[in-house]
Amino acid sequence: MSQNDKARILIVDDDPGQSSAMSQLLGGWGYDTATAFDGRNALDKLSDFPADVVVTDLNMPNLDGAGLLAELQRTASPPPVIVLTAFGSADKAVEMVRESGAFWYLEKPVQPRVMRAILERAVAQAKLARHSQLLERQLSGQGMFGDMVAQSPAMRQVFALLEQAAPTKATILLGGESGTGKELAAHAIHQMSPRRAGPFLAMNCAALPETLIESELFGHERGAFTGAAERRAGYFELANGGTLLLDEIGDMPIATQAKLLRVLEDRKVRRLGGTREIEVDVRVVAATNRDLREAIAKGTFREDLYFRLNVFEVRLPPLRDRRDDVPLIAHALLEGLNKRHECRVTGISTDVEALLAGYAWPGNVRELRNVLERAVILAGSGSIRREHLPAGFAGLPDRLIDATADEVVLRPGVTVDEAERQLILMTMKHTDGNRSRASELLGISVKTLFNKLRQFNGESIQ
Question: How far apart are CA 425 and CA 16, in angstroms?
Fold first, then answer.
């Protein structure tokens, strides 16, 4: 569906009173609405408001309902269109339904009960179409494991191993550089296991001082140490019946490792300061960015604990070794980032996709997410473009284009397309959106200017 939980409806009518009334009606039913005054305005709006359903009047100036429907049918995934007709125009509307792919037509004045029923059906069709597209992408070679997506052979092999191990009781050791998605993998393992109804907890062993880590793991009784004002259960007790991720286990103090080994073998914990043992049923998934064999050689990690944890080891490859996955991961991250920041970013421009895929990503998926989060906030809507990336990213100059109200200064490295884009947008701003005046200043026809603006608004819309 849409980027948020509400279905989005675009209402197209050249009568402001009619469109306002329809917007209020649909808003009262829980839909997110936007309005446009004709077909061309609707096409512009769709770049920032990716509607699930379009409700359009038939007779409008500039571009009528039939013309709008024809334009939408040329896109990859057109939304269902409900056509509203005045008395006497029903024959044309029926023809649009049969020949041009309109979802339905309704005669004015619209009966709210009928409108609501048709709209619910159209929204359901849009939802089904999105679901079908997702399945097609998966069947076309894009793998999924929980919230992780990939198409590279290396990651699809990782997914296959984790899918085999997840339903078992085996302890799993996840290796890989920081930011490769080890916690996501652990959570997916939990969700695909018989313990999915139980708790999933994650503890970062590197984030706690040595004096507190045992208390966090095993709990403590009141008065066990200075500051222990009350009894507290540890992670093992809290995760009983579920899964516990011990992240960065290579940083666990050597003394605590011995106590952890005993818990893993006996399935019992004793709180600090306690006298009785408590049985626990916890599946442990351990993760590390360190080479544990090297740590064993240095004496900083227990060999017996390594063999106890390493029942089923899976290493997640760094992002630089699977760059084919970068565009796929980036697009998958957009939905969550849009929701988090209440933005409406619809895609990523082709040149930005190339920059993302060519970058080495020393911080892996975590770094990719941070770069995209900044870009989504800066873009707000439409497509992510080069100017939304951090200064100096992937070898880009700090600023390729300096644009002010009166001039555009180009620097080496900017593409011809981006230079043209900035010039056109600056001229539109200078003329307060007057296309006729802007086309005169630019020396191009109004039609060419309109097509360029549509191209800018529609970059990377799939």
Answer: 27
Contact 314, 165 (CB under 8 A): yes
pTM of the model: 0.58
Which H helix or E strand runs over 365? helix 364-379
Q: Does domain 146-317 have CATH number 3.40.50.300?
A: yes
Query: Which parts of the chain register pLDDT below 70?
Result: 1-5, 76, 87-93, 95-98, 100, 131-144, 394-415, 457-462
Interatomic CA distance for residues 138 and 330, integer angstroms: 16
Give the number of C-alpha atoms closer than 13 A to the C-alpha of residue 369, restricted to the C-beta side: 14
Topology of the domain comprising 322-457: Helicase, Ruva Protein; domain 3 (1.10.8)
- Pinpoint the alpha helices (H) of 111-253: 112-139, 153-165, 182-191, 210-218, 235-238
Residue-wise pLDDT for 238-285, tens only, equals 999 999 999 999 999 999 999 999 999 999 999 998 889 999 999 999
Ordered DSSP codes for 280-303:
---EEEEEESS-HHHHHHHTSS-H
What is the residue extent of each domain of the chain? 8-139, 146-317, 322-457
Phi (first) and psi of residue 451, to 5 degrees: -65, -40
Distances (CA, A) of 355 to 44, 285, 326, 389, 414: 27, 35, 10, 10, 13
Nearest to 218 by CA among 148, 144, 158, 272: 272
Question: Is the Cβ–Cβ distance between 96 and 102 less than 8 Å?
Answer: yes
Residue 176, phi then psi, degrees to nearest 5:
145, 160
Distance CA 180, CA 182 (A): 6
